[in-house]
Amino acid sequence: MPGTSKVEWMHIFADQESSELSVSLYCKLHGISDKAFYNAKSRYKRVTEEPSLVAIEVNDDIGSSNTRRISFKLNGMRFEFNVSAPDSDIQRIIKICLAL
């Protein structure tokens, strides 16, 4: 997929992983060649595998009226989720943000 940015590939990798489909089936359903997927995965592999320490600031408003929400700052970006948001969605968003 010529012209696909690093950020777009990171979204594709996260989407494929959370879909629980094989790479081959995911690529077929999304019009991506397996070769392009694996080439991009190899190119950005260090980004997805490098462990790093990240500053996270968690908002702990125990007495507030907003107790049904989870909020935190990650690399200067503020996130807020309903407590019922699936962990997999939150993890996927964090992975994408760390790759930016």
Indicate the radius of gyration in whole angstroms.
Answer: 16 Å
Strand order of the largest sheet: 1-2-3
Main sheet? Answer: 3 strands, antiparallel
In round numbers, the mean pLDDT is 78
Distance between the termini: 20 Å
Topology as H/E string? HHHHEEEH
Query: How many helices?
Result: 5
Bulk shape: elongated
Number of strands: 3
Low-confidence stretches: none
Oligomeric grouping of the chains: single chain
Percent of residues in helices: 40-55%
Written account of the structure:
By secondary structure, the protein is an alpha+beta fold. Helices cover 50% and strands 15% of the residues. It contains five helices and three strands. Strands 1-2-3 form a three-stranded antiparallel β-sheet, with helices on one face. Helix 1 (6-19) packs antiparallel against helix 5 (87-99). The longest helix is centred in the N-terminal third of the chain and has 14 residues, at 6-19. The chain is elongated.
Identify the notable features of this structure and list them briefly:
single chain; 100 residues; alpha+beta; three-stranded antiparallel beta sheet; elongated
Concise summary:
The chain has 100 residues and is an alpha+beta fold. It is built from five helices and three strands.
